Amino acid sequence: MRLTIVVAATLATVAAQDAARGGGRGAGPPAPIKISIPAFPDGGAIPAKFAYTQTGNLSPAIQWSGVPSAAVTIALILNDADVPSRLVGSTSVGAGPEDTLHWAIFNIPATAAGLPEGVPHNTTLEDGSVQWKYVDGVPRLAIGTIGYFGPSPPPGPPAVHHYIFDLYALDVKLDPGVNSRADLMKAMAGHVLARGAYFGVYSR
Fold first, then answer.
1. Is the peptide bond before 158 cis (omega within 30 degrees of 0)?
2. What is the DSSP letter of 154?
3. 165-199: per-residue pLDDT in tens?
4. How far from 200 is each of 10, 23, 78, 182, CA to CA, in Å?
5. pLDDT for res 98
6. What are phi and psi of 138, to 5 degrees?
7. Angle formed at CA 71 by CA 178 and CA 138, multiple of 5 degrees
8. So what's the pLDDT on residue 14?
9. Which pLDDT band, with edges at 50, 70 and 90, does 37 fall under?
10. Residue-by-residue DSSP string for 22-41
């Protein structure tokens, strides 16, 4: 139930911001994007190889379709819906009202149909995509790392954590200097042409 509320709240926030500003260039509500992750089904268990461990921190391959022709870039945000941010109300990189950031990558070219397994942990990728170096507001072990940070549930309940992949097709290229989740959401407001969500579960 809580997962449904979190997903709905995340998408509703961007939708409301878009509506207030007239939507993207296409106007009207953002269209759906179909997302698939070959390693696990939507709502399925995330394999351990994609979790944060001492031996690796590998991102899964992600595929998508339905990006409008007017799109310029794509943004992807991954969060753990079961761990409230340690910095609620903060503008720090990982701050979120009901969840904790595990990945933010934006300015992905709209011509891309997905991301390969094992996206490099660099702030800027060869295609111009941008990722953050985390400084706070994320899992403690993520501080100082760059890009994808796999599932790493803290001890204690809940036993199962839900990780949501939110994908947005935008009609603009964002300022690569955007360095917080709050600022990223503000920058995307009014520019979302299409969006989609996919989630997986993971437990210690």
1. yes
2. P
3. 999 999 999 999 998 888 999 999 999 999 999 99
4. 16, 29, 11, 24
5. 56
6. -125, 175
7. 35
8. 45
9. very high
10. T-STT-SSPEE-EEE-TTS-
